[in-house]
Amino acid sequence: MQKKINIINININEDMIIESSAGTGKTHAISLIYLKLLLGIDYPKSLPVEKILIITFTNLAVEELKKRISNNIYELKLACFKKKVILKK
Questions:
Q1: Sign of CA dihedral 58, 63, 69, 75
Q2: Are 26 and 67 a contacting pair, CB within 8 Å?
Q3: CB 63 within 8 A of CB 54
Q4: pTM over 0.85
Q5: Positions of the chain with pLDDT under 50
Q6: Residue 51 CB: number of other CB atoms within 10 A?
Q7: CA distance 88 to 76
Protein backbone atom coordinates (compact mmCIF):
# COMPACT_ATOMS: atom_id res chain seq x y z
CA MET A 1 0.00 0.00 0.00
CA GLN A 2 1.33 3.42 -0.93
CA LYS A 3 1.37 6.21 1.59
CA LYS A 4 2.23 9.87 1.57
CA ILE A 5 5.29 10.74 3.63
CA ASN A 6 6.06 13.92 5.53
CA ILE A 7 9.76 14.53 4.93
CA ILE A 8 10.14 16.88 7.89
CA ASN A 9 8.82 14.30 10.38
CA ILE A 10 10.06 11.13 8.72
CA ASN A 11 11.89 8.71 11.00
CA ILE A 12 14.76 7.23 9.03
CA ASN A 13 15.56 3.87 10.58
CA GLU A 14 15.35 1.45 7.68
CA ASP A 15 15.92 1.15 3.95
CA MET A 16 13.56 3.23 1.83
CA ILE A 17 12.23 3.18 -1.69
CA ILE A 18 10.71 6.40 -2.94
CA GLU A 19 8.77 6.08 -6.16
CA SER A 20 6.17 8.34 -7.67
CA SER A 21 5.23 10.14 -10.86
CA ALA A 22 7.22 12.96 -12.40
CA GLY A 23 6.87 16.34 -10.72
CA THR A 24 5.81 15.03 -7.32
CA GLY A 25 8.88 16.14 -5.36
CA LYS A 26 11.02 12.98 -5.24
CA THR A 27 14.26 14.87 -5.79
CA HIS A 28 13.37 17.38 -3.09
CA ALA A 29 12.44 14.58 -0.67
CA ILE A 30 15.56 12.53 -1.38
CA SER A 31 17.88 15.52 -0.97
CA LEU A 32 16.34 16.35 2.42
CA ILE A 33 16.54 12.72 3.57
CA TYR A 34 20.20 12.65 2.50
CA LEU A 35 20.95 15.73 4.62
CA LYS A 36 19.08 14.29 7.60
CA LEU A 37 21.26 11.16 7.39
CA LEU A 38 24.44 13.15 6.85
CA LEU A 39 23.75 15.45 9.81
CA GLY A 40 22.26 12.81 12.11
CA ILE A 41 18.85 14.47 12.36
CA ASP A 42 16.24 11.97 13.66
CA TYR A 43 18.88 9.26 13.45
CA PRO A 44 21.06 7.86 16.24
CA LYS A 45 24.21 9.28 14.65
CA SER A 46 25.30 10.99 11.49
CA LEU A 47 26.35 8.78 8.61
CA PRO A 48 29.45 9.38 6.52
CA VAL A 49 28.88 10.03 2.83
CA GLU A 50 30.30 6.59 2.01
CA LYS A 51 27.45 4.88 3.91
CA ILE A 52 24.59 6.61 2.05
CA LEU A 53 23.44 5.09 -1.24
CA ILE A 54 21.06 6.84 -3.60
CA ILE A 55 20.10 5.14 -6.85
CA THR A 56 18.34 6.93 -9.70
CA PHE A 57 17.43 5.82 -13.18
CA THR A 58 18.72 8.69 -15.28
CA ASN A 59 21.83 10.85 -15.48
CA LEU A 60 19.54 13.88 -15.44
CA ALA A 61 18.19 12.80 -12.04
CA VAL A 62 21.76 12.31 -10.75
CA GLU A 63 22.73 15.83 -11.79
CA GLU A 64 19.56 17.30 -10.26
CA LEU A 65 20.22 15.48 -6.96
CA LYS A 66 23.83 16.67 -6.87
CA LYS A 67 22.69 20.23 -7.50
CA ARG A 68 19.95 20.13 -4.85
CA ILE A 69 22.15 18.53 -2.20
CA SER A 70 24.95 20.99 -2.90
CA ASN A 71 22.53 23.93 -2.74
CA ASN A 72 21.00 22.63 0.51
CA ILE A 73 24.43 22.29 2.12
CA TYR A 74 25.36 25.79 0.95
CA GLU A 75 22.10 27.25 2.33
CA LEU A 76 22.62 25.49 5.66
CA LYS A 77 26.20 26.75 5.85
CA LEU A 78 25.06 30.27 5.02
CA ALA A 79 22.28 30.15 7.62
CA CYS A 80 24.70 28.90 10.27
CA PHE A 81 27.20 31.61 9.37
CA LYS A 82 24.56 34.35 9.57
CA LYS A 83 23.39 33.11 12.95
CA LYS A 84 26.94 32.25 14.04
CA VAL A 85 25.84 28.72 14.85
CA ILE A 86 28.52 26.11 15.34
CA LEU A 87 27.56 22.57 14.34
CA LYS A 88 28.91 19.93 16.69
CA LYS A 89 30.70 17.00 15.11
A1: negative
A2: no
A3: no
A4: no
A5: none
A6: 9
A7: 14
